[in-house]
UniProtKB/TrEMBL annotation:
Residues 44-104 form the HTH tetR-type domain. Residues 67-86 bind DNA. The keyword Aminoacyl-tRNA synthetase does not apply. This is TetR family transcriptional regulator.
Amino acid sequence: MTSQGDTVARAAAAGRAGRHDGPVTSPRDKPDTPAAARSRMTGKQRREQLIEIGRKLFADKGFEGTTVEEIAAKAGVSKPVVYEHFGGKEGLYAVVVDREIRTLLDGITGALTTRGSSRALLEQAALALLDYIEGSTDGFRILVRDSPAGQSTGSFASLISDVASQVEHILAAEFKRQKLDPKTAPIYAQMLVGMVALTGQWWLDSRKFKKADVAAHLVNLAWNGLAGLEAKPSLRALKG
């Protein structure tokens, strides 16, 4: 069985090969009609339009449930236009996934590179993930729909690994301070990031708690452990 990671890699190459940045028109875009003049787009504009349409359809229906015909119909173009830009549905999906991963990683990386205590950085990282889920719900659905966190391959599994590698150095520094073995930091980084990501998936659908409260409880368990849970946890960074 071909993994999603392999599919995305091939799709990205196909998307690059099929990229077309010149003016694009469909058969219905006839130059001698007013409607055609209004609907004509540059290649860049059409590409962005197709990415936004694909993003919404992939979020709602998943990769398998979305067709090139539907993407083209939503954009008001013919199927060949989609192929010109992305080489097919796989290429478009690869572009969408790549953008979402970069957006989320940028947010978390920014949170982890600010100044503050280890606990403050943990709070900021948890909030960064929840901020992304809240502000880019469709994007997060795409990342987790076709590549659940439990899989060892795929976009979401790769994302978790990337984030965990950035958390390692924070945990290693804290372990050294507490005279714990810093070599075990990668194990705890995977557990920590996995816990936050799975809780984020749950919160995406339930929304029973406020974002700050979810982050506070995550940090409560991650920082204090079950033996030292606070009765009413809150984010210290928000108090400053």
